Structure formats: C-alpha cells, structure tokens
Amino acid sequence: MMVHSVSDGVGDIHLKTDNLSSTDGQTENYKSVYKVGLPPRRNFIREFADAVKETLFADDPLRPYKDQPKSRKLLLGLQFLFPVLEWGRYYNLSKFKGDVIAGLTIASLCIPQDIGYAKLANMDPKYGLYSSFVPPLIYAVMGSSRDIAIGPVAVVSLLLGTLLQNEVDPLNDKEEYRRLAFTATFFAGVTQATLGFLRLGFLIEFLSHAAIVGFMGGAAITIALQQLKGFLGIKNFTKNTDIISVMKSVWGSVHHGWNWQTILIGTIFLAFLLFAKYIGKKRKSLFWVPAIAPLISVVLSTLLVDLTRADKYGVQIVKKIDRGINPSSVGQIHFSGSYALKGFRIGVVAAMIALTEAIAIGRTFAAMKDYQLDGNKEMVALGTMNIVGSMTSCYVATGSFSRSAVNFMAGCKTSVSNMVMSLVVMLTLLLITPLFKYTPNAILSSIIISAVISLIDYEAAYLIWKVDKFDFIACMGAFFGVVFVSVEIGLLVAVSISLAKILLQVTRPRTALLGNLPGTTIYRNMEQYPEATKVPGILIVRVDSAIYFTNSNYVKERILRWLRDEEEQLKENDLPQIDFLIVEMSPVTDIDTSGVHAFEELYRSLRKHEVQLVLANPGPVVIEKLYSAKFPELLGHDKVFLTVAEAVMTCTPKAREDV
Looking at the record's lineage, which domain of life comes first (predicted)? Predict the structure, then answer.
C-alpha cells in the first residue's frame, strides 16, 4: 500500500491506494479510503440562527463583552456608542496641536463652500453654515473615523435641491420648502441610524463602485453646469438639471442676460483656484494653498465688489446673512401628512447617497492609516447627527472628500479637528456673517466648479473599462442618466444596472470544460490552459455558482449543450462517444429544490444518451441537501467522489471496457 497525492485545485488530498498500476497515464483497480463526508444534521432553528448571525453579525461585535463583569460591559457599550470615551483616554497635547491645525485649515475651506452648497440646495447661505456647526460636533463624539470632515457636500446638496423643488417652489414658498428640507433631513437621519442599529449596512453595497464613479462624474458635470447661472450673471435660469435644458437657458440669454463684470470676476478667481489646486498637487507639502484659496478668493472678491460697488452694475451678490447660531427647527418638521411622506421618500434617497460617500471616504483613509472602520457604527453616528441637525436648522450633512483629504494632509489625529472646524464656523456665524454681504455669486460658483472637478474620475472609468465591460456600461449609464435626464434618473439607472448585473450573474452562471494537465492529476479549465487534454470517454464540466431556481434550468441545459457539442466533434472525427459526464461541484456553495430537480432531470436525460452522471466534491451544504432529496440513491452512491481525479481514475477502466 502507498500514498498517492491528488490535487483538484481546492487542496492536496492524500489518498491510500491498493495495487497501483499505470496504463496510459491512468490508474486501474483504484480504491480510495476517503468518501464525500455527510455533515452532521442541524435543526432548522440553529441553521436559521447561524445564517442570521453570519449576515448581520459577521464581525462578531459581542466578542469583547464575553466573560466581562457588568461594569465593564456597560463601559464597552458606552464606548461603542461614543468612541470618544475610548480614544479620549489617550489624547494628549501633541495630538491636539495636529487637530487644531487641521481644523483651522478645513474651516477656511468649508465656510465659502457651505455658502455655495446651500445655494445648490436652494437654501439661504446661513443654512449651509448651520450644517457645518452642529453635525460635526455630534459626529466627533460618535464617529469612528479619525479623518472624515463633516458638512454639506455638492452631490447631496444638488440631489436635495432637485428633489425638493419638484415638490415645493423654493422661490414662491420658501418657508414650506425649508420645512420639507428639514423633514427630509430628519428621515435621512432615521434611515441611516436604523440601518446601523439593525446592522443592514450591506444594503448600500448594491451601489457598485462603477455605478458610483459614473454617478459622481455625472453629478459633477451637472453641478458645474448649474453654476453657469452665477458665473455668467444670468437672472432667469432653468430649473431643470439636464445638459440640454441648461445649455438652452445659457445660450438663450447670451445677448441680454450675461454680465461681463460678473464673468470677469468669475474667470479671474476660477483661474486662481485652479492654479492653487495645481500647486497643491505638484507639491504635497503645499496642501494648504488650495485649502485657503477659496477663503482668500471670497475676501478679495468681496472687497473688490464693495470698493467698486459692482453690484450697482449687475453683479449679483450674496446679500445679508443673518448673524447668530442655529435656531431650533423641531416645530418645522412634518411628522405626519403628505409632506411627511414626501420628506421620507426624499430623505431615504439622500441618506443612501450620503452614506455611500461617507463610508467610502472613511474606508479610504482608514486603510491609509491602518485602522478599522466600523460601518454600522458610522451609520449610527451619521444618522444621529442628521436627526439632531434636522432639529437645529441643518440639512443633510455627510463626509466631504475634499475636506477630508485636506484634513488628512493637514495632519489630523482624531475627530477633534471637526470640533475645531465647528467652533470656527460658530464664531463666523456669531461675528462676521454680515461681512459676506457683498460677496459675489460668481466667486461661489467658481469655488464650486473648482471643487467638483475632482469628482470626475476619468482614470477610474478607464480602469473599469479595461477590467469589466459590463461595469463600464453601469458607469456610463449612471453618468449619462444624470447628465442628460436628471440626478434621480441617473441614480435609478445606476441602481438598476447594478442589480441587472447581479441578476445576470445569478441567472447565467459560468460553466467550464475541464481537461487534465499532462503529467499530473490536476484538472483545469481548458480555455485557461490550452495544454490540458480531454480524457477519452469522459466529459468533465465545472459549475461556478450556487444552483438556485433562478439558474437551475440554465445549468442543466448548458451541461447538456457541452455534451452535445462534444459528441458532435467526436462523431466527426470517428472517435468513441462519451460514457461518463463528471460534474465538478467544488464552486457550488448551495443548491435548492429546483437545483436538485434539475439534476434529477439531467440524470434522466443522460440515461437516454447512455451516459452516466458522476458528481465530484460536492460541499457540505450541497451533499446534505442531495441526501435529503435522496438523489444519491437515484444516482448511485458509488457515483459521488471526493475529487475529479478520483472520479476519472475510477471511471476510465469502465470507459475502456465499454469500448
């Protein structure tokens, strides 16, 4: 007796064999002491509980609480809700210095951005500043990311502005529009917090990376086009966001609506902002240049307009921004009625986009600093801050990529940098908001245009094209949906194509024809390994997916088509026909009743062709279900093998005997 090493691609399996003799590279009188194992039966309740645990609690969040006293469990629970209690114990002066510098840097960037983003959402400028005061404070004590900078962002602001104005006119009914914005923010927060508490964060994964790249790029183009109103000084501008409507509105007012003074101001400062961004990219040590450039632009342009009184010559200005911090807005939120339903619908959409952006940003910087980010904890933090924000005159806030990048490069150590930024915004609201009266709208448009350009990630789009053409279709579908129709249609296209890809992969799984690598007992896909050879009288097919009702009939038909094609080739070359069809089931992670039924039909179809069905290496879940359905009794227990190599070595002598 000797030991023979067999590899089928899953792992090396050592088989004891008797009387090994070789004929044409194959082994006769083969007998293995190992058979496919049947796992111990589990009752339904235990199996269901395990499935729920793996789905919702894959990270085993209760592990730190095991065997801990009640006081320790209480402390761990508080630290889960308020991470500041954990990292705050190790906070020191060195970290504080880094956070102060980072906080002051992102504050100089966020103040002019907030005023501009509020206009994107069709809100007064002060509400943008409000949204960078309260939400960052809440996130600082509840968030688990050290690098995310919180506040309004361009994409969510545009999305809110578009969806809200479809329900309420922001010019003729400003109060109701504002109430609906707070209502949508409240329900956005509730949605985010609920997803976090119920540990349903995996739902946002349905927006694929490719779809997000396309959506963000399309949104960036749309946002930039919307800024042409302020950049060119146009007073009457379309409410539609698609490129055709915007360009009609722009060129329709070229002779009577454009203001050359406004264009001059916008062009000069846009060039300055882009040059500052170029310097920051060229030399990483000068990251602070593009960070403070927007604030410098606001100060200089405001002084220019104030001194020259350019507003008298048609240059549109921000006008008065009320002084004072966030007033309560609890009484303005619709908790019932038709507006509550509208706010809920808009809030859910805004919540998902805001979550996707924030968690993507958080994970990016967490990977760069080598620490773990708890996605569900992030959702709870983001949801809580938006709930509180909705009650303090804020609209939806989330993580900003541009500010987070500046925060990271400025040397932030913890989320205290958000607190510093928040305090600077508070002082701005209390002391200097009247100074923004003569700030030209053109400079805000220039700031937004320079900020959203980075959202157009053409390098990522090109990589998607090279890697996966279907992903590229999803990317371009989202992009063109946003640019040529609307933001919500682009989002719908992105989700639809992402789901379509999943459905296509589920309903049409890959199958492969396997061949033997000469001189080995390894069997591989013959397309990938052209040197692999077919085994006479045997056809080996691998199914690369779980087999469910959605694809069971396709899998059966595809296997039969492999057989039909192979038999036609053998007949043309006057070679012996197929006697055994081996189905390699290593990649088949699960099977349902429809899948079992499909295998029964496959077995009967093969019998009519005088071909025997053989299974190789079914997994524990699959073999358990096959035994429950008594399929091995129909097939024959001796037709289920541990490896493809074992099946081939057992079937080959029989195939030769039948010739």
Answer: Eukaryota
Do 386 and 404 share a domain, yes or no? yes
Scan for tokens 């682009």, then name that residue: 490
Angle between helices 93-120 and 401-409 (to 10 degrees): 160
**What's the N-to-C CA distance of the chain in angstroms?**
30
Domain limits for position 523: 509-651
Region 272-276: mean pLDDT is 95
- The verdict on 193 and 292 lying in the same domain is yes
**pLDDT by residue (tens digit) across 127-147?**
999 999 999 999 999 998 989
**Domain tally, the chain:** 2
**pLDDT band at residue 13 using 50, 70 and 90 as cut-offs:** very low
Does a structural domain hold residue 80? Answer: no
Q: What is the DSSP letter of 596?
A: H
- CATH number for the domain including 584? 3.30.750.24
* 382 class by beta-carbon count within 10 Å (0-12 exposed, 13-18 middle, 19+ buried): buried
Query: Is 324 part of a structural domain of the chain?
Result: yes
Cβ neighbours around 101 below 10 Å, total: 16
Strand duo 538-543 + 523-525: pairing? unpaired
Angle at alpha carbon of residue 540, lines to 544 and 581, rounded to 5°: 115
Q: Per residue in 160-177, pLDDT tens?
A: 999 999 999 998 999 999
Segments in 121-197 forming alpha helices (H) = 125-130, 134-142, 154-165, 174-197
Q: Where are the beta strands (DSSP E) in 238-346?
A: none
Question: 525 — phi, psi (to 5°)?
Answer: -60, 125
Clarify whether residues 474 and 553 are in a common domain: no
At residue 361, the pLDDT reads 87
Q: Is there a single domain that holds both residue 327 and residue 463?
A: yes
Rounded to two decimals, what is the model's pTM? 0.80
* 3-class SS of residue 577: coil
What's the pLDDT score for residue 60?
67
* Predicted confidence (pLDDT) per residue in 474-489, tens digit: 899 999 999 998 888 8
Is 13 a domain residue? no
More confident of the two residues 583 and 411: 583
